[in-house]
Give the backbone structure.
Amino acid sequence: MAVLAAENVSYTYQSKYQKVQALKNVSCTFEAGKFYAIVGQSGSGKTTLLSMLAGLGTPSEGEIIANGKTLKEIGSERHRRENVTVIYQSFNLFPTLNILENVMYPMQISKKPTKEAKVRAKELLSSVGLGDVDPRKLPAMLSGGQQQRVAIA
């Protein structure tokens, strides 16, 4: 069963000078436990599609569906909090929070008790190979690859 899908999604960027149709009637489904690659030429709409799937934009036409519900039903903010994660090339970690606090942060804004968030954050850090790293380290004290793994956690 698909956990995430795009159904006939279209999106047009509009500026003062031009309109660019980045997506036109795109449909795709993603199942749990599988890896996917979105490939195409520069300007073909890959980033736009990923942005729509992550709830970072709203399609001009069509629907994004997560776990059987449309993003309109779920709400983009809730969708980003509960269903998807975006890992940016620049990691976007909070520089003044240690790595444990960075991983705990999304759980805390979702009102998870601090004690539970701390336990889960340690599990997640361990799952990405950072279980032996001092969780009190700031992101700047880690290598780029380690920072990327904190962002994944």
